[in-house]
Amino acid sequence: MKALRQNAGGSVLIIVLWISFGLVSLALYLANTMSLELRAADNRAAALAADQAIEGAARYISEVLSAYATNGVMPDRSLYEAEAVPVGDARFWIIGRDPAWPRTYSDRVYFGLIDEASKLNLNTASTNQLQYLPGMHLDLLNAILDWRNPNAGGFSQIYYAMVQPPYTCKGAPFETVDELRLVYGTSLEILAGDDLNRNGILDPHEPDLDGNNQWDPGLFEFLTVYSREPNFHSDGTMKTNVNNITQLMPLLEERLGPSRASQIYVRLGFGGRRGGPPVAVKFESLLDFYLRSGMTADEFGLIYRDITVGTARYKRGLVNINTAPATVLACLPGLDENTAQQIVNYRQTAANLSSIAWIVDALGAGHPALAQLARAEYITTQSYQFTADIAAVGPHGRGYRRAKFVFDITEGTPKILYRQDLTRLGWALGETVRRQLEGKTAYD
Question: Model-level pTM?
Answer without folding.
Answer: 0.88
